[in-house]
Known about the structure:
Distance between the termini: 78 Å
CATH class of the domain at 32-126: Mainly Alpha
Order of helices and strands: HHHHHHHHHHHHHHHHHH
Amino acid sequence: MTVKNATIVLALCCLSSARAAVQTASADSAISDARALLDQGKPALAIQKLQTISDAEDLRVRHLLGVAYYQVNEHARAVEQLEPAVHRFPAGSLERREATQILGLSQYLTGHIVESIPFLEQSSNWAPENGEYAFLLGKAYLQTRQFDKARPSFARMFRVSPDSAAAHLLTAQMMIPVGFEEHAETELKQALHKEPRLPQANFFLGQIALFYARVDEAIVYLKKEIEINPGYAMAFYRLGDAFTRQQRWDEAIEFLQKSIRLYHLYSGPYVLLGKTYLNKDQLGTAEGMLRQAVQLDPNNKSAHYLLGQVLQRMNRHAEARAELATAERLQGDSEK
């Protein structure tokens, strides 16, 4: 190589090094600015800043993009950034913890329940006092039918012993809304085995029995609940509900009225009282109960429908048509 060529190569190397140094400094500045924007609650601006960096594989860029996408509720994109990177962060580092936490939450929120569990487990172990991680982990265990693991998570959330009657009760309450009534029944019976006078356990057993149309069984459980917990309005309401299903109207009225005396701002007992008085042909009283139900809950389609029936029986046809039309509209809204 001639002296001239060597000089040219050296100059080019120096120029390349200088360019790399400028790019590194520019990336460092953009990353610092993006972190500041995230701290200020401006994730969308942080994303714009990070997208100016040419090295998309920079671990710092992936980390901050994952955080920013999570904050703007683009959870799938957060997973896309963090999943390939999380194990590249040093064990025990704050970056790894943050990436793990966001991955668990984002996987869960995108419906990847199985994939979310390892990350939620790590997050819950790191932050045992954090109720949100314990709650989501418990729900993830339920959705993957790992029921024995769900109970300790909910117990941690509510700070009770995982083997206590309270833990069984709380787990059952989490199971019922997601359609695991049979498993909830098992949890509730275990709770009562450990603590026979535990409030609400008999109530939920009665509610499950009603769900399966085992009305006689429901009545037994609900009466036990009232014996243990005599000020619980919902137990009186559900007991009145059970009696309406058996067309035992006078007994239904007794317990529904007690429910209202204990708590008068819930529309359910008024609707059932309206239905009961309609069946007893006490139309004026039925109208009063149903109008109270509508006042408390204007979107209660059952209340509007029953009120329409009452008004028809009273030959107030224009008012009846209006109520029945409202009920039909609300039914249509609920099906959308």
